[in-house]
UniProtKB/TrEMBL annotation:
It comes from the Bacteria. The lineage of its organism: Bacteria, Pseudomonadati, Pseudomonadota, Alphaproteobacteria, Hyphomicrobiales. Belongs to the binding-protein-dependent transport system permease family. This is ABC transporter permease. Residues 110-341 form the ABC transmembrane type-1 domain. GO terms for molecular function: dipeptide transmembrane transporter activity. Its main location: membrane.
Length: 349
């Protein structure tokens, strides 16, 4: 009996190790594919990284020497091999725009994007999910129609236009929020970066005034981002809920006299939590990679603004590094969503 129990335990741990190994292998291969895509796109687009370094007035000899020093005279396969080795050793090259290493730049700019996108997805979830549930529970009513129109506006309205209107109304006219940037200029540099997240760092430093000032600057761009994620999350929540509300177990609960609130939030909502995780994860990743317009409008010092500047300056190391980080975050969020999917749904284990 004891031997059978020990064998079952070893078998269970063996399956877990195989699953963990498969997970790590999948992440590695996906990241390697991302490396290949970013590298070869960087070589195909009509931007010469050598000219970005030496300038367009450099002599042929200087150009050739710089090209050799950058390793661009070697075959693409050799270049890709060196690129992979450098990436896995933490070297993304030097930025032409800033003169610093790309890794150092990304450690400065990415937390600002992460902070704004995190607040944005929190707004999207806290508002979008209840709106989707309400719309589904009152299908065909005026409330449902209004929520669907709000979702349609979120899909069709240009981000830069909404950001400019928000600045003109809430900052320039009403003075309810702070202006462009992360802080007022007289607060800039007073908080030493620890995590890079200004809200967290200001609280750690005990600077409450700076914390609230950062909130006033963050709330408008985060709300604009949150509006777009809200539209997607509300639409998908409504669709999932309509499917559940048509199921027989919901009808049975209503026939038994279960209160409508319990029917909606316990019987119908619980089964949609799993697909909602995937929707929220994709929306969050989309905010991280799609905040370029918002960061440009609000002069937000994030990775989107950094990527735009790098593209304008033909700074390929910064472009490839930024793209790689965004892709890696996308992969990470997807994998976390898969793990949560398995935790919440026993059938997926």
């Amino acid at each position: 009996m004891a031997e059978g129990s020990a064998f079952a335990t070893r078998r269970r741990w063996g399956r877990r190790l195989v699953a963990i190994g498969g997970f790590i292998a999948t992440v590695f291969l996906t990241f390697l594919g991302l490396l290949a895509i970013t590298f070869f796109i960087g070589r195909v687009i009509p931007i010469d990284p050598v000219l970005a370094v030496v300038g367009d007035r450099a002599s042929n000899e200087v150009y050739a020497a710089a090209r050799t020093a950058m390793g661009l005279d070697q075959p693409l396969v050799i270049q890709f091999f060196h690129y992979v080795v450098n990436v896995f050793s933490g070297d993304l090259g030097q930025s032409v725009s800033t003169g610093r290493s790309v890794v150092e730049d990304l450690s400065r700019f990415f937390p600002a994007t992460l902070e704004m996108a995190t607040i944005g997805i929190m707004i999207g979830v806290l508002v979008g999910v209840p709106l989707g549930v309400i719309a589904a529970s009152r299908q065909g009513s005026i409330i449902d129609q209004i929520i669907r129109v709000v979702g349609l506006l979120g899909y069709s309205m240009p981000a830069f236009w909404l950001g400019l209107v928000g600045l003109a109304l809430f900052y320039a006219r009403l003075r309810w929020v702070g202006g462009p940037g992360r802080l007022d200029i007289f607060y800039d540099g007073l908080v030493s970066p620890v995590t890079g997240l200004l809200l967290v760092d200001s609280l750690l430093a005990g600077e409450i005034d700076i914390f609230w000032n950062a909130i006033t600057h963050l709330i408008l761009p985060a709300s604009v981002l949150g509006f777009f994620s809200l539209a997607y999350i509300a639409r998908m929540t409504r669709s999932f809920m309509l499917d559940q509300l048509s199921q027989e177990f919901v009808t049975t609960a209503r026939v038994k006299g279960v209160p409508e609130r319990v029917v909606i939030w316990r019987h119908a909502f619980n089964p949609i939590r799993v697909p909602l995780i995937t929707v929220i994860g994709l929306s969050y990743a989309g905010l991280l990679e799609g905040s370029v317009m918002i960061e440009t409008v609000f002069s937000w010092p994030g990775i989107g603004n950094y990527l735009t500047t790098a593209l304008l300056n033909a700074d390929m190391n910064a472009v490839l590094g930024s793209t790689l980080v965004i892709g890696a975050v996308f992969i990470f969020i997807n994998k976390i969503s898969d793990v949560l999917y398995r935790v919440l749904d026993p059938r997926a284990r």
